[in-house]
């Protein structure tokens, strides 16, 4: 009697890519694999587009670190209402190059006089002063900050003054740049850009420039220096016929004597 050996059939293992729904649709495993790959790629693309959109919306107000270093004008930022700029007179040609006037400014040198006297018994008393090596820190407005930085500014001196009768305030800022060309460029730039960049006022409760108030300003190239003059009534009100802002500006420019003395030191003459 022949013994018959019954062999059991091995069941075909389902493919990893066999999904019940796709199998019911009549798709073979290879077709299912291809469909899943295509769907995955499409999903990545959709996710990427969505991510770009989200990042774009979140980053629309971002400022680069370089721009963020410059003070940005806000609603409380005081700025000049009237401005005038002057190029450097020939008198300051001896100090047109910092290489010939290399000695750094000192706070005592610029603000040696605690009181500046002008016409009509006008007297300005120094209420606060400072001198530092970070010119960008005393300015606001990216264009101005960039221009001063490119001009090789190494020092910025600021002095805040109050008139003896308490009616007027004035600030004088002196910037130490590389040469006369750089100083002239800063002044020229301010002629049209002073509303978008100016010097910051010294922080003192004794003299405050009112945001939105009337103030007048001027920029003077003095060889490789730039003098910034800023004047106003203490109450920020518009000037009246009795308010002489010209004399006020000339009086606070007494701080420029430091630059005159340097010219004399180089030329040896007071003419």
Report on the structure:
There is one protein chain. The protein has 271 residues and is an alpha+beta fold. It folds into 2 domains: 39 residues; 202 residues, no CATH class. A 7-stranded mixed sheet has the order 1-8-9-6-5-3-2, sandwiched between helices. Strands 4-7 form a two-stranded antiparallel ribbon. Strand 2 and strand 3 form a beta hairpin. It is globular and about 100 Å long. The N and C termini lie far apart (142 Å).
> What is the structural class?
alpha+beta
Show unreliable segments: 1-10, 44-69
Strands of the largest sheet, in order across it?
1-8-9-6-5-3-2
Query: What is the β-strand count?
Result: 9
Strand proportion, as a percent range, falls in 15-25%
Give a nutshell description of this structure:
The protein is of the alpha+beta class and 271 residues long. It is built from 8 helices and 9 strands.
Give the topology.
Layout: H1 20-24, H2 29-58, H3 65-68, E1 82-86, H4 107-110, E2 115-117, E3 123-132, E4 139-140, H5 142-150, E5 155-163, E6 168-176, H6 180-193, E7 198-199, E8 215-222, E9 225-233, H7 245-252, H8 257-267
Parallel strand pairs: 1-8
Antiparallel strand pairs: 2-3, 3-5, 4-7, 5-6, 6-9, 8-9
Helix pairs in contact: 5-6
Summary keywords:
271 residues, alpha+beta, 2 domains, seven-stranded mixed sheet, 8 helices, 21% strand, disordered N terminus
């Amino acid at each position: 009697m022949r013994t018959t050996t019954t062999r059991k059939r091995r069941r075909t293992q389902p493919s990893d890519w066999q999904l019940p729904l796709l199998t019911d649709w009549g798709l073979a495993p290879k077709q299912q694999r291809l469909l899943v790959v295509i769907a995955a790629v499409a999903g990545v693309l959709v996710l990427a587009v969505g991510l770009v959109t989200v990042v774009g919306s979140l980053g629309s107000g971002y400022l680069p670190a370089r721009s963020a270093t410059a003070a940005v004008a806000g609603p409380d930022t005081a700025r000049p209402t009237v401005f005038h700029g002057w190029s450097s007179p020939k008198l300051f040609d001896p100090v047109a190059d910092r290489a010939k006037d290399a000695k750094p400014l000192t706070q005592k040198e610029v603000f040696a006089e605690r009181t500046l006297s002008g016409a009509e018994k006008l007297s300005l008393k120094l209420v606060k002063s400072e001198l530092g090596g970070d010119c960008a820190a005393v300015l606001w407005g990216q264009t101005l900050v960039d221009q001063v930085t490119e001009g090789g500014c190494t020092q910025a001196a600021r002095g805040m003054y109050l008139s003896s009768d308490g009616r007027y305030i004035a600030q004088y800022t002196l910037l130490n740049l590389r040469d006369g060309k750089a100083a002239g460029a800063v002044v020229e730039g301010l002629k049209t850009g002073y509303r978008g960049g100016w010097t910051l006022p010294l922080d003192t409760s004794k003299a405050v420039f009112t945001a939105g108030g009337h103030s007048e300003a001027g920029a003077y190239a003095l060889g490789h220096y730039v003098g910034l003059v800023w004047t106003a009534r203490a109450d920020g009100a518009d000037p009246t016929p009795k308010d002489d802002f010209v004399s006020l500006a000339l009086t606070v420019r007494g701080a420029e004597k430091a630059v005159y003395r340097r010219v004399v030191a180089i030329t040896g003459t007071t003419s």
